[in-house]
Description:
Layout: H1 7-17, H2 30-50, E1 61-64, E2 71-73, E3 88-95, E4 101-106, H3 109-113, E5 127-130, E6 137-141, E7 153-159, H4 181-192, H5 203-224
Parallel strand pairs: 4-5
Antiparallel strand pairs: 1-7, 2-6, 3-4, 3-7, 5-6
Helix pairs in contact: 1-2, 1-4, 2-4, 4-5
Amino acid sequence: MTRILSSKQIVERAARLAGIFPITEGGMPDEEVEEALYWLDMMVGHVSGTERLYWLVSDTAAITLIPGQQEYQLPAALAPNAPDGVQFPMQAIVVRPGGTRAPIRMVPRVEFESHMDLSLAVGEPAEVYIDRLSSPKLRTYPTLAADVTDTYQLELVFQAFSPDLTQKRGMNAHNFRQAWNLWLATGLAYWLAGGVLGKRMPQGERDTLKRDAADLLMRLLARDNNDNRDEPAIVPPHEF
């Protein structure tokens, strides 16, 4: 099976690709590895904040709804099933006392706030609003009545934040599949080639790294970054 590279191994390959760390040397200085890990962490954090990445979609986590309570603090309400926080909620499902499940809407704030009886309506939640703060809050509409004795749950499918790649000198565990190794090394090489480690690559060569990284990421998002299905993916036509 193809090797899964550690963050440090990705850093070393990226530095070689950028012409910073020749293979004839025994190893990168620790301070350069540390700085490069920060750039790797920022690069992955940016992509995970702008794209849906299925390797960051964890198991479905549930909140037990409290009668009379409209607001829940995330990720605390999902603990311990959201150790890396909640970046993008993807689906919300109400689980009724008998175990039946019903998907409900996730709505933007303007629509949620437009309910004239927002703080008064009671009943089984039909929609939720989740804000975009670093520690988001989830609010339900309607709110479960205060005198309800049955147990209702709210299940969330969500994308977590990417892990901190600067920890343990780049030897910490991550969830990258093997297919992402080449993009990670090429994309990081582009940033390192800008001079963050003291050596700058000629702009033309750096532009080539940028194009290669963009092409690799596009292919990953089109193929590896999709749910498994028994039908071929439908993609828009490409004009050559």
